[in-house]
Amino acid sequence: RKRLTISGLQKMKQERNAISMVTAYDYPSAKLAEEAGIDTILVGDSLGNVVLGYETTIPVTIEDIVYHTRAVARAATHTFIIADMPFMTYGASREATLTHAARIMQQGGAQAVKLEGGSEITGDVEALVKAGIPVMGHIGLTPQSVHQLSGYKVQGKLDKDAERLMKDALALEKAGAFAIVLELLTEPLAAAITKALSIPTIGIGAGRACDGQVLVYHDLLQYASPYFEKKFVKTYADLGTTVRQAIEAFSQDVKSGAFPAEEHTFQPQAEAKTSETL
Ligand code: KIV
Ligand code: NA
């Protein structure tokens, strides 16, 4: 199959074909996501939470994102890959923003970058787009601003906040973003933004009207994620239990002597063989 493009994503919105996106952070997660036929993969800075064990996404570095994106890109050779720009790798200076995005594209192998923020980052978005780098926006609950936002909460409940978020979405579209993630917005606000924009919206905890939906890999698979029980997540498998039980069984087999069994062992042979297949 062919890798989706930003014009392909645009077309999906126009034709009302919902866009699916899942996060992936390494070779196996990206391989399985691509084999599953997902439309787009996000190398999210949520890797800070679900892969590296941090409390927030703030400690995630450009090196972390480049390293994980490279592993994803080796596996997902036919899927459109977007990678997050980490906290403070954009917005400080135009030059730093461009340099960091270039590393994510060149060294990581992503096809696009994602930045959190609204009107305050449109200068950066314009510069990236001008440089040939596709940009996905991200508004609503923006985890890199968790301290500024005083916690992880639904955004846009008050009229004045909803108006600001609508303005932010329109400003990002005008600046050249090819799509926008809407995180933890009320359903009517996400619907209004989706309707007002000509570029696709990808929702997470933002209701049914978005042009696409994204979930975090470890959440939807219940894979040692602290977040899978959140209201906006649907869990599709319980990998945590599967993996824990498998490792428990292995450990018990080692202690009981049930593993390795004879079929797992190598024995000397009377006749010399030049090679042995493992
Ligand atoms: O980092 C991430 O996983 C994200 C998605 C939740 C949109 O930004
Ligand atoms: Na993110």
UniProtKB/TrEMBL annotation:
Q: Is Endoplasmic reticulum among this UniProt entry's keywords?
A: no
Q: Which residues form the active site?
A: E183
In Swiss-Prot or TrEMBL terms, this protein is called 3-methyl-2-oxobutanoate hydroxymethyltransferase
Tell me the compartments it is located in. Answer: Cytoplasm
Coiled-coil stretches are: none
What is the UniProt remark on how the cofactor binds and its stoichiometry? Binds 1 Mg(2+) ion per subunit.
Protein family per UniProt:
Belongs to the PanB family.
The answer to whether keyword Metal-binding applies is yes
Alphabetically list the UniProt keywords: Cytoplasm, Magnesium, Metal-binding, Methyltransferase, Pantothenate biosynthesis, Transferase
Reported cofactor(s): Mg(2+)
Q: Name one GO molecular function term.
A: methyltransferase activity
Gene giving rise to this polypeptide: panB
Q: What is its EC number?
A: 2.1.2.11
Q: Which reaction does it catalyse?
A: (6R)-5,10-methylene-5,6,7,8-tetrahydrofolate + 3-methyl-2-oxobutanoate + H2O = 2-dehydropantoate + (6S)-5,6,7,8-tetrahydrofolate
Give the pathway annotation: Cofactor biosynthesis; (R)-pantothenate biosynthesis; (R)-pantoate from 3-methyl-2-oxobutanoate: step 1/2
Cellular component terms per the entry's GO annotation: cytoplasm
Give the originating organism. Paenibacillus agaridevorans
Q: Any idea which positions bind Mg(2+)?
A: D45, D84, E116
Q: Where does 3-methyl-2-oxobutanoate bind?
A: D45, S46, D84, K114
Q: What does the UniProt record say this protein does?
A: Catalyzes the reversible reaction in which hydroxymethyl group from 5,10-methylenetetrahydrofolate is transferred onto alpha-ketoisovalerate to form ketopantoate.
Assembly description:
Homodecamer; pentamer of dimers.
